[in-house]
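Figure-free illustration: sequence to structure, shown twice.
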Amino acid sequence: MLRFLEKKPTLALEITPRVVRAAVLSRSGTQSSVLAVETVDLPEGVVEEEYAVPNILDFKVLADRLGDCLGRLSRFNARRAALSLPDGVFRIHILEFDELPPRAADRERLLRWRLEKAAAFDMAGTVLRYRVFRREGGPYTLLACAAKAAVVSQYESLLTDLGVQPWSIGPSSFHAMDHYATLLHEHPQSFAFAYIADDAISAMVADRENIFFYRWKEVRRTAADDSRLRVIREISDSIHFYTHRDRAQQSGADRLFLAGTAAGLDAVAEGVRSSLSIDVSVLPPMIGVAAAGDAAGDAAMPVVSAALLGAGGTV
């Protein structure tokens, strides 16, 4: 269900307002190895996580920092890249249709109309990608992901100027969910998946064949705020809302899988477990990925998944 693209590039990148991560990967069959990882912090004011306005505020500083990372990885000659960006850069929505037009152009026109009317998204000047799911005899479910073309163009220009071919650009949460697909598919029932980034959480409910629910929530850090309690509350509220939004729905999540770049996932798991009385599993930093060469570890996630499997809303 969650594997959206077939080809696997060898360079994976992640850019957030705080950090740039780069990883070089080698793949053999279903196994992938991290050959090297480079990470560099970004000063405040270089990158913004926004949907409607330009993200790169200081192109030179970002290009210099990313160029330094790529320079330290130049021995691998990896020039085809997947880029993972924060979910807040995108607008992601799940829609249902009884019927869909057969022509792709008509289908996109209908989808854009629904997103503007039902989801109140500003779809002007956007790049739109979507995935269609359908249970036998049931309605069509569309997972749609949109990003402003001007924002995507900024990142494409950044990579191109550095001699890198941008193969795919997509949201971190779906890159991560794709990365863990093999493990998630071992769960026979519907499950919840929460991806915790530095300043936001993304919560989803899915099964082996479909995705039912997606919610993104910004969780900004403040000096007087206990961000961990807020994360626990937002994840619990998301699952509770999904469970009770429609009494007729057939799919309730009986397990939550946690992943992310933020620290303290075990404490978050315990808090959600106490709040909802649900089984909670903290996923390891990487699955099916054996580090080789330079030290990898947590720094390679989620950029590793970006290059391994692509993303649900690739733009």
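We now fold a second protein in the same way, so the two outputs can be compared directly.
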Amino acid sequence: MGITRGGNAEYDDSKPTLEELAPRVEGAIAKELASDSAVLKLSGKYYSTDEITLLARSSQVSQIRVLDLGDNQIGDEALKILSESTQLLNLEEINLGINFITDNGIKEWASSSTVTLKNIKTLILSDNKLTDDSLSDLVKSSNFPELESLDIGWMEAGNGTAKALGESDTLPHLKKLELERSYIDAEGVRELVSGKVAASLEELNLSANKLGDDGSKVIAGSTNLKNLKVLYLSQNGIGDEGAIAIGASTHLNGLTHLYVGRNEFGVEGAKAIHQTQTLTQLRTLVLKEGVETTPDLVNYSRPELLHPDQ
């Protein structure tokens, strides 16, 4: 916005045309691709619909495999343009976190028959304006057949999304699922771990949900998580009862990394996990964060003093 100075000040609300924007966007793309022609990082550029329109048309992006558009101003219209781009056919990883995408945009992407981005393996949507309404459609959509990693945390995912994940049969390759800062409770996690998606997962992040002891017990008792290697359960209101269930689980014995800090269990629960006889593959274990205030538990919280990664 410009200001015309003079006797009568006026504001100029005009914005550049696509033709005027094109050199700037093409220049930014060229600069970022100079070091790696397969990776395009454009986070924090304040890009919205016009810039995305130009990017999606650019011949420079035809060979990129990784596109980072996090922390921009991308809304539903720009999302549709991206998803139908004929220049991004080789794209395998896209970061759309911290934008302005709503349920309408995701529902349209999930149901569209004109989507061209069929090779996406990593999709980051965290911190948008999404709820169970669209996330349930997303995880049941047939438009993401190659998806291996999905981040839908820091939004309003709840039991509806968990239930849809439990019912989904369209994500056969999903190995990593991020649901941090969501609203899933024991009932929801029971649905989540019951289906085909959970059976193939190698990494599951449920930090900062509403699991409590009951949810912890559901996870500990699930026979469907045998491929799981990395599990985040921090900040879930888990007490001694839930921690003891995790420590005694015979179904989570493939875990190599376990994070359960910022919960409500005390020494009894911490010892149950720390002295586990079943989670024998653990290399990294975080039972308590902020150990400077509880030095007696320091050994429970410093992974290098337990089973260090080699």
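Summary for the second example: Residues 1-7, 295-310 have pLDDT under 50 and may be disordered.
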